[in-house]
Amino acid sequence: MEVVAGKMEGVRTKSHGDKGFKKGFLLMPGEDPVKLDPDAWKKSLEGLTEEEIKWKAWLATRGHDVQITESNLQDYCEVAPAGEQAEMRRPAPSGLNQFVPEPALPRNRCPEFGCEQTFETPLLLRLHAKATHPPTFPPAAIEAWDPRSIPEGMGAKYPTYSWRQDTSYVVMRVPVPRGTSAQEVEVRLSKTSVFVGLGGGRVLLDSKTAYPIYVDEYDIQWELEPAHDPYVLVHLTKFFRKEAMNCRDASETWWKRCLRCPGEKPFGSSQPPSEYYSSVGTYDKQGEL
């Protein structure tokens, strides 16, 4: 069938109905049509092993994660001269089909102070804690609810409370039983006393302060920390502080002790440590001492 019209002038093509020729294949002027060999695929498999045939079939269908075209053929197939058999080679791994090992299961460490055991599931951890670590109050170790160290002259730790100070503020920690909610906590402050209790009339701390504190009855700051061994943070503001302009220097704001109770003794030194003078603004920056 001759096609001579417009821009197609001089171009000949074979009809789709002609047998032995590729459908829609255009022939340039002076070019003879080439008959396709229906057995060409069989000849291309001659000399290949069964594994190479399977690999070639996988590569030619959908077993590849990229589309093979003439532009990237050299990257995935080795082209051999005419009449020679090309060696099969696997493409470079792209990373999409690589095996990624599953991450290890998280280890559930026992939160009890001094216990280093780990368990595969939370259920095993709960069974261990119930059988080995029954809840006790107050906790046997102070580090269970206050693990941070306190420099000498900056505060102290006791079985039922701990305290830290800077030049303007004092922060107290009072441990509470496990399962305590904020609705059960009662905190009362006055210029010379501190009270911390729980519902039902249980008293955790009730004592006079060694030095006066500034109390705003509309803004008593305390918070319950829901840790494994929970505790209450009580924020105290020193009455004598440089911001209030009622003292000469920072040495007059230093507390030698926090409470006037028999178990607490004042520091042996009469002068604050060097860390005390450099603690200006520590509370404002961190919110805790």
Task: Give keywords.
alpha+beta, 6-stranded antiparallel sheet, 289 residues, 3-stranded antiparallel sheet
Commentary on this structure:
By secondary structure, the protein is α+β, with helices and mostly antiparallel strands. It is 14% helix and 21% strand. The protein contains six helices and 14 strands. The protein has helices at 40-44, 50-60, 73-76, 122-132, 274-277, 282-286; strands at 2-3, 11-13, 26-27, 108-109, 118-119, 155-158, 161-165, 169-175, 185-190, 193-198, 202-208, 213-214, 222-225, 231-238. The strands form four sheets. Strands 6, 7, 8, 12, 13 and 14 form a six-stranded antiparallel beta sheet that branches. Strands 1-2-3 form a three-stranded antiparallel beta sheet, with no helix packed on it. A hairpin with a 2-residue loop joins β9 and β10. The longest helix has 11 residues, at 50-60. 15% of the residues are buried.
List the quaternary state of the chains.
Answer: single chain
Low-confidence spans: 1-23
Tell me the fraction of residues in β-strands, as a range.
Answer: 15-25%
Shape: elongated
Distance between the ends: 96 Å
SSE class: alpha+beta
In helices, the fraction of residues equals 10-25%
Main sheet specs: 6 strands, antiparallel
SSE order in H/E notation? Answer: EEEHHHEEHEEEEEEEEEHH
In DSSP terms (H or I, runs of 4 or more residues), the helix count works out at: 6
SSE topology:
Elements: E1 2-3, E2 11-13, E3 26-27, H1 40-44, H2 50-60, H3 73-76, E4 108-109, E5 118-119, H4 122-132, E6 155-158, E7 161-165, E8 169-175, E9 185-190, E10 193-198, E11 202-208, E12 213-214, E13 222-225, E14 231-238, H5 274-277, H6 282-286
Antiparallel strand pairs: 1-2, 2-3, 4-5, 6-7, 7-8, 8-14, 9-10, 10-11, 12-14, 13-14
